[in-house]
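Tokens as discussed.
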């Protein structure tokens, strides 16, 4: 392999031009044209798929973080309100923070497994 590379280096520019003029240029032009067509087909499809998956992943990450933050916040707020109302500081705050955390993690589990558990008037099972 080294000798082939060494031989190629020793070939003069004039000899290379003569070889290309004998018909290799047509093959190279044809190859370039086919590569351009293939790249054009693939670049548009792949970039659109990448954009869609990126949007989908960002949306899902935002929903997961929102689910957890809201559930813990609502649990903590409810616990704080009940603690002030009943005078049981800090016990209900701790209990409802844990319940909010559990609810948030349960919502994330349902989201990732595709189990929506939808309810409502127009929901069809």
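Sequence:
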């Amino acid at each position: 392999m080294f000798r082939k590379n060494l031989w190629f280096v020793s070939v003069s520019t004039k000899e290379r031009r003569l070889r290309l003029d004998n018909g290799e240029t047509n093959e190279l032009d044809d190859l370039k044209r086919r590569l351009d067509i293939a790249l054009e087909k693939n670049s548009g499809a792949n970039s659109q798929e990448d954009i869609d998956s990126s949007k989908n992943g960002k949306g899902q990450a935002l929903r997961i973080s929102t689910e957890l933050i809201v559930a813990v916040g609502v649990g903590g707020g409810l616990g704080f309100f009940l603690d002030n109302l009943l005078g049981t500081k800090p016990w209900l705050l701790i209990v409802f923070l844990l319940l909010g955390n559990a609810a948030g993690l349960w919502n994330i589990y349902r989201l990732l497994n595709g189990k929506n558990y939808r309810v409502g008037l127009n929901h069809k099972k």
